[in-house]
Amino acid sequence: MFQWVRDASVSLQSLLTARLGAEPVLAAQFGPGGTSVVSLHTPEEMGDIPEQGLSVWLYRVLRDEFQLNRPPVRIAPDRLRRAPLPVRLHYLFTPIASGGNGVAAPELEQYIVGKVLEVFHDQPMLRGADLAGDLAGSDVELIMRLEAPSLEEITRVWDALERSYQLCLSYEASLVPIFARQETPTGAPVLAVEPELGLATELRP
Question: Does pTM top 0.85 for this prediction?
């Protein structure tokens, strides 16, 4: 289901909104009545709006090459559906915080980064009720893994944003399956072969 990419992002947004809002030091910013948000905008877009809080930016989507050999799924005796396309989602978590004078507040940004690390260390897997949208109630498990991109790789990301480097975290979320809509007509599966009789027994609908 193609909307599961969006639902994965919303799931992370909801989790972090709840956890940051429940942290005593951050409650004034992220709790009810606070002015900070967990946003799916890029850091650049948050600066233009302007918004403060945490940017959860999906900046790269890759297929998982280790899961590509799954067989097609038989959904009827005479129809197959291609196996889901497994994708890995790469997020940049960037705190955007400033003091009353509009100058960046590095202590607060570092506190937010530390809280994000704690959240995904405590809960590296999202499933069931942790998931939002159509993912909720599915058997999908969203596994979070802290990445360590090289300085060159992360610098290219910030160059693409046309912004100077900022404190950030990179996480990979896997696996999110994208299901095919189209079905492939096929013959019924063979249940038994009897070469001595020249027979192949098929499953009939």
Answer: no
